[in-house]
Amino acid sequence: MARSTSGESVLERVVRILEAFTPESPVLQVSEVARRAGLPVATASRLIADLVEQGLLARDADRRVRVGTRLWELGSRASPTLSLRETAMPVMEELQQAVGHHTQLGILDGDEVLFVERLSAERAVINYTRIAMRLPLHASSSGLVLLAYGSAVLQERVLAAPRHRYTAATVVEPGPLRELLADVRKQGFAFCPGHIHPDATGIAVPVRDAGRQVVAAVSVIVPNDDRARGHLPALTAASRRIGRRLDDRPIG
Q1: Which of 37, 95, 190, 224 has CB 3.0 to 4.6 Å from 201, enough for a Cys bridge?
Q2: What is the residue-averaged pLDDT of the chain?
Q3: CA 252, CA 238: separation in Å to the nearest integer?
Q4: 220: left (phi over 0), alpha (psi -120 to 50) or beta
Q5: Do 115 and 221 meet the contact criterion of CB atoms below 8 Å apart?
Q6: What is the pLDDT of residue 129?
Q7: Close Cβ partners of 99 (under 8 Å, ≥ 6 residues apart)
Q8: Could you tell me which residues come within 8 angstroms of residue 46 by beta carbon, excluding any fewer than 6 positions away?
């Protein structure tokens, strides 16, 4: 694959361009894409033109750029999360109706939790999470579940890295974080009042496959009040149902 004088491949530069787009900034000027990708404007403009031609990016009437529908199509066609999402969705819909706020499905990806599905209600409590959004493992209830049941290597790597404090309740110090992970493994759930936002409580439980391996975390985001813990039985039951549905999937 062709490389620039810096030794960086074209593909690496294209990935940086695609990563410039975020839920907060879905449409960008070419100059802003170049800035975020760390590329000269001329280089970014040329690569963007190629991506637009292939349908991976699109331009609006003002020549601004956004992600193209073909990129979504290609990504969804053979996504490794597709089967998990389809299996979990009926259960998540029932859980969301019972909770009346947010229901989420997250998987471990590197040192982060990647949210592959989210259901919400019109007047639900504040929630920063979106589909295809990532959060560090230490901060959210889903992340803590995935970290608690992850490998020792993963845990030590996260414990050794700098950790962002979202609120005063976010657990960032190594000692308390180790204790929290031990509590998650012992209790089978993560209960995180105010860890991401003071007004919201995240509660997550593991989803296990037929081999009892944790493959995901299902969570609810509810108001940070004395009723939050009351949602745990419904959440635990939903997790078990998703696990049974995973077991019943046809092979091949």
Answers
A1: 224
A2: 91
A3: 25
A4: beta
A5: no
A6: 82
A7: 220, 222, 231, 234, 235
A8: none
Domains of the chain: 10-75 (1.10.10.10), 79-247 (3.30.450.40)
State how far the Cα of 113 lies from the Cα of 89, in Å rounded to an integer. Answer: 18
What is the full DSSP assignment across 25-42? Answer: -SEE-HHHHHHHHT--HH
Q: For the range 2-10, what are the long-range contacts, defined as Cβ-Cβ under 8 Å and sequence gap of 24 or more?
A: 10/47
Amino acid at 213: Q
Helix (H, G, I), strand (E, B) or coil at 111: coil
The H-assigned helical ranges of 141-206 are 141-148, 152-160, 174-187
Q: What is the pLDDT of residues 84-111, one digit of tens each?
A: 889 999 999 999 999 999 999 999 999 9
- DSSP label of 178: H
At a CB cut-off of 8 Å and minimum separation 6, what does 173 contact? none
CA-CA distance, 158 to 63, in Å (whole number)?
Answer: 41
Average pLDDT over residues 136-140: 96
Q: Which strand (E) or helix (H) includes residue 134?
A: strand 134-136
Encode pLDDT of 36-58 as tens digits: 999 999 999 999 999 999 999 99
For the chain, give me the number of helices (H) and strands (E)? Answer: 9, 9
Averaged pLDDT, 175-194:
97
Residue 133 has pLDDT above 90, yes or no: no
